[in-house]
Amino acid sequence: MKLLILDAGHCLSLALAREANRRGDTVLQIEEGVTVSPEHLDEVAPDALVIPPLAQPISADPAAVTAHAEAVEACMDACRQSDVPLVWCVSDQLYEDGAEAPIDEHVIPAPRDESLQRLILTGDRIREHHARHLIVRLGPLFALEGTGAWLTELLDCLLTGQEVRAAEDVIFCPTSADAAAMALIGMLQQQACGANAWGAYHLAGTEPVSAYTFTSVVRTQLATRLEGLGETADLGRLVALNHHHDQPLRRVLNCRRVLDVFGVHQKPWRLELGRLLDTWCQAHKAQGGSA
């Protein structure tokens, strides 16, 4: 299977590259840009075009959101002309108001924010005009490298003693970029073998948690590992924020369909976080340590 991946520096693109290198049945071509022409698609002839998500669309500049939406639609047009399946990954933040129960795949987000509405319009156009598509909604991605990696930024802030502010009343499912990449390639392998299961899917880690609790776990595990290396670090302190005073905003994705259709199990974020911190500590020790 051959995949064309856009936005080379994105944390999900880098994770897809790592996963493809680990396997013998997947070849990737990764492009720096965020759009592709029909001519280039014809030249590459991939089994699918994969577009990583726009990170934090709720807080992104409206112009950046519009540019992303327009780029995705241009890619959709190219895919239609070249008859190439399109995979568009999107943030769970499109479910702006969350829901009390886990959100099923068939529920199309209906945000009030105009920028987010622009992304919904793009999704509607994909559903209407290009049947062979996967719209994959992801929880907040975390990784050690790449755009939107989150964990890297968090570690940098903690190690430099900066204050970290995180909401304790926003509940979501942190999602390992590596786990998402593994699942995406597995899904696309099945599609290439004739599964023909196009549509929208949710892909997120298990165990809903607040942003504050997630950052607290990162801080605690980082401190423990540094101590194990014989180091002491004055890590930045955490500050809990509260934006929803009536009740927490729950943005939890129900990932049952991806399990039923493709057999993809979600990976616990705590296990993935521990693995990544172990990797970080090995690199840190190899570089001579000292936080």
TrEMBL record:
It is an enzyme of class 1 (oxidoreductase). It catalyses: dTDP-beta-L-rhamnose + NADP(+) = dTDP-4-dehydro-beta-L-rhamnose + NADPH + H(+). This is dTDP-4-dehydrorhamnose reductase. Pathway: Carbohydrate biosynthesis; dTDP-L-rhamnose biosynthesis. It comes from the Bacteria. Its cofactor is Mg(2+). PANTHER family: DTDP-4-DEHYDRORHAMNOSE REDUCTASE, METHIONINE ADENOSYLTRANSFERASE 2 SUBUNIT BETA. Transmembrane segments: none annotated. It comes from Modicisalibacter luteus. The lineage of its organism: Bacteria, Pseudomonadati, Pseudomonadota, Gammaproteobacteria, Oceanospirillales.
